[in-house]
Amino acid sequence: MTTVRPDLDPELRELLADMPLMSQLSAEVLAQLRQYPSPPVESLLAHRRVDRREVTVPAEDGASIALSVFSPAHTDGAAAPCVYWMHGGGMVMGDRFSQIDIPLEWLDEFGAVVVSVDYRLAPEATGTTLVDDCYQGLLWIAEHSEELGIDPARIVVAGASAGGGLAAGTALLARDLGTPAITAQVLICPMLDHRNTSTSSRQYSGVPGVWTREMNEFGWHAVLGDLADDEVSPYVSPALAEDLSGLPTTYIDTGSAEVFRDEDTDYATRVWAAGGQAELHVWAGGFHGFDALYPQAHISATARRTRTDWLARLLSRNGTV
To answer: Which of 54, 166, 233, 243 is in the most buried spot, having the most CB atoms within 10 Å?
Structure first.
């Protein structure tokens, strides 16, 4: 029986036709992919008046976690909102500069201080190590908010794909540990559920793509190994969290033509069921990471603008943007 799946947006389909796609990941392929660096961040900063600072903070096990801090070069002295960015890459690749163009748009728009974290990657790091690294970075931001010129009441955690899942896990940790305060979480096509059993997961199995069910299985296995479901922490796989109450207001977007569609829509539904506030967008014809890969496409520009408009409304309610 042929698997049916939503059509791609026509413009995205045309752009994607020129991109080499695969259906599976392996250790050998991952090693090759890791040799390709992220686009140099200097090219993104060249037309911006930005102060950049590189710091390291200690992880719980004593390892060093690198953070990049990007601040508007000239401000009026008022405390700024902060966007704490977690990059994508299936938890097995990428670095703190991956997809950094997304939060840098919010530096432009709101004068936000952007902090991006180089959490450790699987399979070298496993279990809760990745999300713990992200949480330690968040603690550092909160502890140094005055030094950074940050308004501690306007800290937003954000991430794409694996980074979206880690942002969700970081928000759960902050809620459960009682600190620090987070005003919002922005989860862009987040990787939330290691079980990989949804309808959308099955729809994107066995076909070449940007991120397939088989690639997803590889990424999760790299982090979790052979742990049984009841041994997996909800901070790593946030869909496992039984209680989604008390979370910061949440923005989730995803594409209709991608693996994570159903786990993302389910997460938003469960936030509402717990009495929380969430805004959900499912972009018709969007594949995984479409707006990061092809920001020039009409659907991508619309998705990015919609996300930014939501943040503008939120931050203006919490203080002057």
So the answer is: 166
Q: Is residue 16 part of a domain?
A: yes
The phi, psi pair for 39, rounded to 5°, reads -55, 140
Q: Tokens for 46, please give them.
A: 């060249």
More confident call, 37 vs 231: 231
- Residues 238, 257, 293, 30, Cα dihedral to 10°: 60
Residues 6+ apart with CB under 8 A from 67: 54, 55, 56, 57, 96, 115, 116, 117, 118, 137, 140
Does a structural domain hold residue 2?
A: no
Distance CA 293, CA 278 (A): 25
**Backbone CA torsion sign across 47, 107, 115, 278:** negative
Q: Look at residue 77 in the predicted model and tell me its pLDDT.
A: 75
| Token pair in block for residue 157 | 């955690």
**pTM attached to this predicted model:** 0.96
d(CA 72, CA 221) in angstroms, rounded, equals 40
In Å, how far from its chain's centre is CA 267?
14
Three-state DSSP state, 122: coil
Q: Decide if 91 contacts 81 (C-beta within 8 A).
A: no
Domain CATH number, residue 47: 3.40.50.1820
* Counted domains in the chain: 1
Residue reference for tokens 């953070």:
67
Other C-beta atoms closer than 10 Å to the C-beta of 42 total: 9
| pLDDT tens readout for residues 201-254 | 999 999 999 999 999 999 999 999 999 999 999 999 999 999 999 999 999 999
Residue 230 backbone dihedrals phi, psi, to 5 degrees: -75, 0
